[in-house]
C-alpha cells in the first residue's frame, strides 16, 4: 500500500478546567496559545510547522476528543476514506479550524480520528519570528520546552486487533509489540506512519470503556533538554509520574507527568529511525526491558490509568486467572522492569 498518512498533526483533548490546563501548557510545558474559539483553545509548540498541535476543549473529564493525521496527498485522503468505509467504519466530512476540509470517523475501538490534507502553515512575525528560514518561530524561552508534537498512545480492549485494523486499513507500519511473560496476551503495540518507532501506540484497556487515551507526547531535541525539563518541573512543584528513563521498544528517552486535568503527557527524545518498508514487528516481553531499557525501575501502577477514568468492573477482574491478573493490571511491575 502506498503511504496514506504522513504524520500526527494535532491532538484535541478535553479538560474540566480549560484555563488551568492551558496555563499549565503555557507555563510548564512551554506551548503558546494561538487561538481561542467557542471555548476551545488552540496551542502550538515553537517548532510545530502548522497552526497548532494541541486543542483543549471543555469536558467533564479528561479525554481525547480526536487525534489528527495529515495524509501524504489529497488523493491519499480520498483513498484513506474509501478504505475506512470499505472496512465498515463511517465518518463525515468536517470543517476544521485553520485546516479546512477533513474527514472524521470513529474507529472500531471508539477512537475519533481526523484525517486531512489541507493545512495552514505557521510563520511567526515580529519578535517571535526566527532568524532561520525553516523555523516557524523562535525557540521557546521555557526551559525544556518541546519542539513539536510527537505521538499519541490510546487504550483498546484488543491490542492485536487494533494493530491489524489500523495497519491494514490506513497503512501504519507495525513496529513492535509486548506480550506478557505469563501468558500470550498482547498488552502494547507501536505503529508508525514514518521513520519513528511510533506515532501511534496502543495499550491494553482492561475496562469496558471505548475510545480512551493513555497519554500523548511531545518531542524535545536532546536528552539534556528532557533532563532539564524534569528538573524544572520538580522545582515548580509538578510531580513526575515516571522517568526520566529509556524505553526498550523504540529506545526513546521518556518522562511522564500529568497536566491539571490529570491527563498524562510525555516528553520524548532520541530513539532509532527505521525506514524498512517491510519491517516485521518483534514480540517483546516485559522481562526483556520493553518498557524500561535498564530493567531496573518498576513502572508505577498509576501509569495503567487511561482517560476518561473507567467506571464499573474491569475486564481484568472477571474471568482472568489469578496468576496473570497482576500482570495484566501492570505488565511491567512484576519483573521490576519498569
Ligand atoms: Fe509514549
Automatic annotation (TrEMBL):
InterPro entries: Glyas_Bleomycin-R_OHBP_Dase (IPR029068), Glyas_Fos-R_dOase_dom (IPR004360), GlyoxalaseI/FosfomycinResist (IPR050383), VOC_core (IPR037523). Residues 7-118, 148-270 form the VOC domain. Pfam families: Glyoxalase. SUPFAM superfamilies: Glyoxalase/Bleomycin resistance protein/Dihydroxybiphenyl dioxygenase. This is VOC family protein. It comes from Microbacterium elymi.
Amino acid at each position: 500500500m502506498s503511504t496514506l498518512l504522513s504524520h500526527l498533526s494535532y491532538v484535541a483533548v478535553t479538560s474540566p478546567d480549560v484555563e488551568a490546563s492551558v496555563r499549565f501548557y503555557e507555563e510548564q510545558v512551554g506551548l503558546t496559545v494561538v487561538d481561542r474559539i467557542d471555548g476551545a483553545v488552540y496551542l502550538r509548540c515553537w517548532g510545530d510547522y502548522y497552526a497548532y498541535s494541541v486543542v483543549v476543549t471543555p469536558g467533564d473529564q479528561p479525554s481525547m476528543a480526536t487525534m489528527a493525521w495529515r495524509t501524504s496527498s489529497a488523493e491519499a485522503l480520498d483513498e484513506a476514506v474509501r478504505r475506512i468505509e470499505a472496512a465498515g467504519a463511517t465518518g463525515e466530512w468536517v470543517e476544521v479550524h485553520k485546516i479546512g476540509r477533513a474527514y472524521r470517523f470513529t474507529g472500531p475501538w471508539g477512537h475519533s480520528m481526523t484525517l486531512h490534507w489541507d493545512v495552514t502553515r505557521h510563520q511567526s512575525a515580529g519578535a517571535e519570528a526566527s532568524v532561520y528560514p525553516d523555523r516557524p518561530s523562535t525557540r521557546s524561552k521555557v526551559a525544556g520546552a518541546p519542539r513539536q508534537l510527537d505521538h499519541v498512545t490510546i487504550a483498546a480492549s484488543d491490542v492485536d486487533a487494533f494493530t491489524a485494523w489500523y495497519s491494514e486499513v490506513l497503512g501504519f507500519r507495525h513496529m513492535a509489540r509486548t506480550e506478557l511473560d505469563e501468558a500470550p496476551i498482547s498488552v502494547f503495540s507501536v505503529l508508525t506512519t514514518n521513520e519513528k518507532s511510533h506515532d501511534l501506540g496502543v495499550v491494553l484497556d482492561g475496562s469496558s470503556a471505548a475510545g480512551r487515551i493513555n497519554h500523548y507526547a511531545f518531542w524535545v531535541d536532546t536528552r539534556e533538554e528532557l533532563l532539564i525539563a524534569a528538573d524544572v518541573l520538580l522545582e515548580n512543584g509538578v510531580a513526575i509520574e515516571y522517568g526520566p528513563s529509556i524505553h526498550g521498544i523504540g529506545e526513546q528517552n521518556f518522562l511522564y507527568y500529568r497536566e491539571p486535568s490529570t491527563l498524562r503527557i510525555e516528553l520524548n527524545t532520541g530513539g532509532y529511525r527505521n525506514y524498512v518498508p517491510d519491517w516485521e514487528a518483534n514480540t517483546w516481553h516485559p522481562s526483556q526491558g520493553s518498557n524500561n531499557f535498564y530493567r531496573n525501575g518498576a513502572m508505577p501502577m498509576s501509569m495503567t490509568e487511561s482517560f476518561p477514568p473507567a467506571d464499573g468492573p474491569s475486564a481484568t477482574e472477571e474471568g482472568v486467572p489469578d496468576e496473570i491478573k497482576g500482570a495484566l493490571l501492570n505488565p511491567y511491575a512484576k519483573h521490576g522492569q519498569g
